[in-house]
User: Fold these one by one.
Assistant:
Number 1:
Amino acid sequence: MSLIFSMGTQTHDAGFWSQLMEILTFRAGYNTTTVVAGTTLLGIAAGVVGVFAMLRKRALVCDALSHATLPGICIAFLVSDALLGDAKSLPLLLVGAAATGVIGVLCIQAIVRLTRLREDAAIGIVLSVFFGMGMVLLGIVPEIADTPAGGINHFIYGQTAAMRRADAILMGVIALGSVGGAAVALKEFSLVSFDEGFARSIGWRVGLIDLLMMALVVAVTVAGLQAVGLLLVVAMLIVPPAAARFWSERMATVVILSGLIGGLSGFMGSAISAMVADAPAGAVIVLTAGAFFTLSMVAAPRRGVVAAGVRRARLRLQIATDHVLESITEVERGERDPRDARRPGILLLLVLRIRRLVEGPGSRLVLSELGRRRGARVHRNHRLWEQYLISYADVAPSHVDWSVDKVEHVLAGHLVEELEYALIARGVPITADGAHP
Amino acid sequence: MSPALHEFLRLDLMAMLAGTLAALTCGLLGNFLVLRKLSLMGDAISHAVLPGLVAGFMITGARTSLPMFVGAAIAGLVTVLLVEVIRRLGRVEPGAAMGVSFSILFALGVVLIERAASHVDLDADCVLNGQMETIFWNPPADWGAFFTTETFFGEAGVPRQVWTLLVMFGVACAFVGLLFKELRIAAFDPELATTQGIHAGAMHVGLMVVVASATVASFEAVGSILVIAMLICPAAIARLLTDRLSSQIWVSLIAALTTGVVGYLAGARWAVHLGMPRSLDAAGMMTIVAGALLVLAIAFSPSHGLVARSRRRRRLARTVLLDDLIGALYRAREAGHDTIAPEALTETLHGHSRVTRGAAMARARGLIQAGKESLALTDAGITAGARVIRRHRLWEGYLVDRAGFRPDHVHDPAELLEHLDEPGVETPAPTIDPHGREIPGPDAAD
């Protein structure tokens, strides 16, 4: 990111930061304040509403929806021009956008229900065909309406600079409405998102709730057209929820976090865009959200990539340790030929030494007292599992060892005891060789 | 050469050829995307190549150069990898993973373009819409000088975009032709492919590489929206019309060809004749034609179309109604009523109008004689009724003997099964049903 912004022609003198602070604290002039406030509200609303869209696996339906608004905008532009003479009546344009957007979504559902095509194909079809229609209309609007259609282009890429106070207020109202709706119906939306069948079975009208969710998505999409443009508004709906999902498993937390991330992206993105020349607000907002997403994906405490990697590495280390200790135990008891012993790699050997599980020189490793105890336990687990699989799971004796290798590490101590008692109670000898430690 | 033809060759032929070649290339590859539920990968790639394109452009500063192509192709592959990484490592749902990666890359591209726009002539619109209108050819106006290398390969010869697309189409054909068997198995059953020694993952990556290059090669000429449409629509149309992959591919190519030619002509030529103030955006018209063809396929496909399916459903409903009516009359006959009033059947056939309709059909087929107040089976009707009742009672017997149903629970299931064939499990077939009634013989008539 910093690379992109430093490429600007602007010189980043000391005034840069004070100017940025002014924008961030809404003291930077009327227009900038309007834009920053509007996109922040939009970000919050998109973040909140997007969570449900993501959980319903509708992320890309939103993309089709936003692309499908283009023909509606063009038609509304023509209608508005014919009726009012003033070609830019924003509410009318937004109504047109919503109309074809909704028609697009209905087409997706109809294609999925009535044909053998699957949802991904249906989404792609609606997205491209509707947008193609929009492009054809866009080409002839200036000729028919006899005015340049420059205003419509703003809806494709977003043009915050063209935002007027009324536009920002409209956006704010839609945003507040969506957040309010989501807050009131959080329970209903969550249940339908997670378990539609259950919601239906307790008598909820799932279709109606679904429709409400979709209506909020449509409202946010349409509100976002002007700020971020129809190509990128989908990012506002998808990226913050996907980022928030890394941090929590609880619905309410995810919704709040997603709203926060969306709001912050809108706030910081539009502020940065106001500072830097040639940095369109919509794209910068999306990149800011993208930075949040990357951060979340890498660093989130439980679902994050780093945390998951550490967990996996730990488990692998434990399994490798168990295998080596078991192998040495078997060699010491004369059950395994020393030539077949598993030899730990350098790293593993280091870990074993640090944990004081083994002693002695590398060529003649012996178990420490601690290592002996743990090795014996692993060895016993192995035998118990073997016996269990032979007696109860109908696994052929010659196949047992292979299966045991996978499961012997997962048993907790008390479960091993339970298994042991159960086997004794049924008169099954616990170890195949009677070498019970 | 007539001036009209020359004008067509000069202004339209090459643009049409570019659009059609792009449509054919994408349509061919799209077959495998649609099968593997990857339709939207084309969407993702074609949005996400923007930053690569701009980066290549910024490095060289020239618009028509290999670096741009390379940059875009790299960006396309990065998208594919990014989607996989986010999906696997982040455990994000595939749709959202795709949305996240391509929208962020696209945003990056938009910012890069704006930054570059001050020094260079490039805007995001040309990526979306393409530049079909700028593809011209300058052949000589008379046939005598036409067939020279200069006409085709010279300075004013066939434009570069068309050559690129021609090569790309060849590559796509070669890819599909050589690896058809492998692609087919990997598309339908990746596990089976692996057990047969075909690396399904490698096939996936290979397909993605070709799709990414086709996307990049196409959208300079025709724009990314047409690329998305052509990766999905022809394959979807063909999938509605055929059931075999090989025929699906041929049909999709025909659909792509039609889309390209008709779409271009409709936009560039016919629109003006039809009273439009100017010619229409050709790429947009092609997507509309593709959409229209798809609507036609959804409605009128002989096997999977709505019309055919509804006709099949209606035919089945007619058979069921007729069977029910004849069966009811046959039962009444068994009970000693040779004629029966239509009102008596209202409940059995679920409604008075169904009785009237069924009676009309049965009379037209010569199965009953219907007076105003009474219905009676003809000889043909008795034979047909016996067959229905035979099937019903054989199924009842089957359900009790073979499926372990209680005798008082078998009537309703047998009401459904009687419209199928006989169960045919035993020889000789039983002659008495679980309720002790006689089962009419296979060629029964009274």
Number 2:
Amino acid sequence: MNTQYERPPFIRIADADRTALFAEGLEYNTPARGMWNIVHTGMLLPGAHQVYACAQGCLRGVILTAAEMNALDRLSWIAVSEQDLFDGTLEQSIIDGTAEIIGRLPRRPRVILLYLSCIHLFAGVDFPAVIDALSEMFPDIHFTDCYMTPTMRKTVAPAVKMAEQLYDALQPLPVNGKSVNIIGNDRPTQPDCELLRILRENGFTVRDLTECRTHADYLQMAESAHNLTYLPVGRQAGETLSRRLGTKHLHLPVSYDYDTITANYRVLCDALAIPCPDFSADIAAAEQALGEARRVIGDAPVVIDYTAVPCPFSLAEMLLLHGFSVQCVIADSAAGEETAFDRLAAAAPDLLICQAVNVNMLHAHESASGDALCIGQKAAYYFASDRFVNIVMNGGFYGFAGIRALALAMTDAFLHPKDRRAVLRHKGIGCESCLS
Amino acid sequence: MSIVSAVLPCYAADTAGVCSALYEMGGMTVVHDASGCNSTYATHDEPRWETVHADIYISALTEMDAIMGNDGKFIADVTAAAHDRKPKFIAICGSPMPMMTGTDFDAAAAEIEARTGLRCFAIHTNGMNDYLAGAADALLAVTQEFAQIREKAKGIGVSILGATPLDFGLSGTVGSLRTWLTENGFSVVSCLAVGQIDLEHAASASVSLVISQTGLKAAQYLHARFGIPYVCGLPVGTLAPVIADALRRSAQTGACAFPCAMRKPGDHVVIGEGIAAGSVAAASGGRVLHPLACAPQIAHPDDLHVPDERSVKEALEGLQPAQVTADPFYRYVLPKGTRLNALPHFAFSGRCFETEIPDLIGRACR
């Protein structure tokens, strides 16, 4: 399938250089819209209003993201013109525009997330001066500097920075040793996972932005003595918040490796000075669900994409060990998964890796057999399968209970095909949509 | 003063206009912009993305390549993709960052053409203008490139210019327009730029019918280069026979006509793209507010240019119309008591009301 291409979209894992899986080149955009963007993430903050100062082409996507969420009234914008870039008014036009927007809003927001774009950073805009000026003009509003800077994605990844800035409005409170935050995720953690069980059984209050209903709920997160992160995108947010508030950060990365999961829980329990429970029942439940999934799915090919889980190679390894016929991982990078990648390359050298953005994937779905069990939307699209697990960013799954939940979701996906086109065009899984 | 909006969306950008105009022409269009920025176009500005697969890509520009002026990577990547995709031609266009770094797109196009042996041309966009500018330049470019002198079509051959989903969605308007032309004794020799395009036949028409300003520059070129007159308007409601007469007269006399600029009295306001909104107003009465740039010959002297939310609101407050025909998102700025006659515009509200976009041809205008 690759021979005719200068930039082939597939490579055997045994032939791949894990430091650079594919050559960079032009990129294609898959019509699978479930991934969140900075607008979806910003909407998590109760009482916040988003203001974007960008060129028209950049504004369009964020505005219509909000529109499709039925949240157009929570986002405003200032268009940057060529004139703004060379007449020395870049900062002042942002200040004036934001002030004008605040004057037109029917309610005073508690927080304004102010987003600048690539061209502002490139032009050397004095963002702190903008924030200071606005804070002085509107002392009742907290202004947070935010960034829509995809050109700078290799130095400041927009999603990572967005997760970090979400907690900027938290102000120090007396620390409560029995309160723990989960930071940097885009949806609640599954309630039946061991992580939450351990915390609940030991008397901790768990706070999570995704479950804050009011701005007061959000502000109360500042009292937590510990900030837990488990998604890679949230790690920097946890570090920054802990440093700023003088609290502790624990990164317990999502994994599909049993030893890593157990090690994460030991780290948690040591940090909280609580006994680490026995997980044999949780492991048995996960094993049972995986066994049942394997029985139902049989030898059907399995495809995993990186938008569904942050550690697709770890998941591929675990599924292969449980007898699944994993054929392909869609991923543009193996960063953070070096160990699992190397083990896979040795154990399953024919496993294919697919570059999600490769231009030669344009027609891939037309020749796909459609019989794969897919984990993630890009996999479902490229492999033309209606049997897919519809999650992004691990879907709130965590720990052994997360493995069990994923196995159940795989079984359900195999037995109950979805309306692929309808599901994939819904922007931001879990968000409200005017399309449905 | 910058354009500021508390709640109204902005229109699709010039880069989207380029991609939309060239979508069905078999070429490869590359926007020089950051990774992920093609998602906006693919999601919100292109209703064909899921069903018709075109070679529309992004260059995935990075900070370091921009700082270092590494246009060589852009040229090499386009060349590699052209090798793999084998398009009929290549169009490249720019976004805000290349504008800031002064990327020489004409030189890049020449280099790509030399390396690939494929015709490559640059469309000069920067992501800071609306779709009309980009689409008009793109349609002009391909018309200049590919429209050839051929034998004139028998009878009155018409080229439809300015047909993109950004203005008409996938509502069937363009198909109905073809039918309408045929039923009125015309033959369609080309349609820029959807369906059976027949671009190379555009110069064999007796007259061009411009249905959106995205087709105006191409029409002006065909007029200047081949002496083909053009008529601006959409045959909606009572304007349909006027446009049919104008097409016949223009084909005969060689004079251009602008039925979309006709107005009749009414307490009605239409907001939208100049030719479509003007045609609706010409059919139903009332005034037109132009949120987008509008060529002088397209507009009526009583029309108002309303480039931002504040000016739309002020104009409507001043006019106090009984009803407004506009995209449903304009409901946020309507005066109290004014009724909205929803006319969704894909270039404004994207997918939000896509199933409600009407087939405008023959539609009874209220």
